[in-house]
Predict the 3D structure of the following.
Amino acid sequence: MKAVYFAWVRERVGKAEEELEPPSTVTTVGDLIAWLAARGDGYAHAFEKPSTIRAALDKVHARHEAALAGAAEVAFFPPMTGG
Amino acid sequence: MKAVYFAWVRERVGKAEEELEPPSTVTTVGDLIAWLAARGDGYAHAFEKPSTIRAALDKVHARHEAALAGAAEVAFFPPMTGG
Amino acid sequence: MATIRVQREDFDAAAESTALARGRMDVGAVVSFVGYCRDEGGRLATLELEYYPGMAEAEMARVAREAESRWRLIGVTAIHRFGKIAPGEQIVCVVVAAAHRGEAFAAAEMMMDFLKTRAPFWKRAIRADGAAEGWVEAKGEDDSAAARWDAAG
Amino acid sequence: MATIRVQREDFDAAAESTALARGRMDVGAVVSFVGYCRDEGGRLATLELEYYPGMAEAEMARVAREAESRWRLIGVTAIHRFGKIAPGEQIVCVVVAAAHRGEAFAAAEMMMDFLKTRAPFWKRAIRADGAAEGWVEAKGEDDSAAARWDAAG
């Protein structure tokens, strides 16, 4: 699946997007966050406080409990500050 | 005192303004309405339902209980329908 | 200091709105309301608005001052037309500038609710079908809309 | 059918507002909101807005549809800019046309509250004093503002 990152999540991860191939035990958004956080320094910093991370699956907001269930694109970003 | 009338109050009274010299027993807006209502057909029609009549003293909204207390101008009109 | 105008001619709501924000670095939100004359499904030919000169301006200024006393506002403009107004034309506008949107929205809505029930204007409807023209009746829902600000205040 | 745009260039809120009412005889009320970039008392030099292409437009359309499902609206427009925005410049606008003012006010305010908390935009502040630039933090009051529509709905 494709992962995209925005704002300080993008800056800490060090890239705007990438292809991910998580193991089959990673079934929810929250699982994916935990899996990413263990990938190295930038990821650890980006995902150090999972509660501050918002996610979207195929461009629709998704809770951490949401199943990845074949989504083509997952996005991680801080709380929105537009408007 | 000067009296001014608006909308259907004006139409029923048949004039836009006039000088009034009510007797000294007329001390409130409500007294003045009752006194006007007894002045003849147009007035009787205009003031037949005092509860539908709004008033202002010197261009400030006034309740029927308000004392005339030396106001220079009294106005009578229906509920407002601007905006 | 609010800008209050009662006039026969049309107004440019956009220009009023821009005027409140132009050159200011502390304005975060501008809410504009424009009230239009509806044709009531084709039944209305024209509205004719009568008003109480002197009191209308004074009452609009009192409503603006009340808004300014309740919220931190940077600018307030209220314009109300009188005379003949055709369907599709503008009748009234209220523009409020503030640092934050909540205050601008609340102030603009309260001002409109109060203008409806307090500003001395009266509409006469001239019917498209030639039926007798008549004074528009005040709506109870306008009183309710105005009353909720007293409860909230 | 709402008009939704995400763009780098400035917009003409007045033209958007006029477009919703022009030639329509059933529009009684148009409420426009424009959000401006404040300079935070001189501390802010520039905002830089990042957004999630595709999702931003989709989310703004969902917010518009939610407003259209709650109130009888005649027209809805929402425009959000991205990129560098200087103090005094426009960031966002929402315009709602309806027959009645209460619906137009409520819809415009709900849309702004929801856009703030749901539309994927992020602001980075570049400081006038050369201090480290930083991502603007989300405000709890924006969550509260959005939450009251759930309670009311």
In short: Chain C has one domain: 3-148. The longest helix of chain C spans residues 101-118. Residues 3-148 of chain C form a domain with the Aldehyde Oxidoreductase; domain 3 fold (CATH 3.90.1170.40).
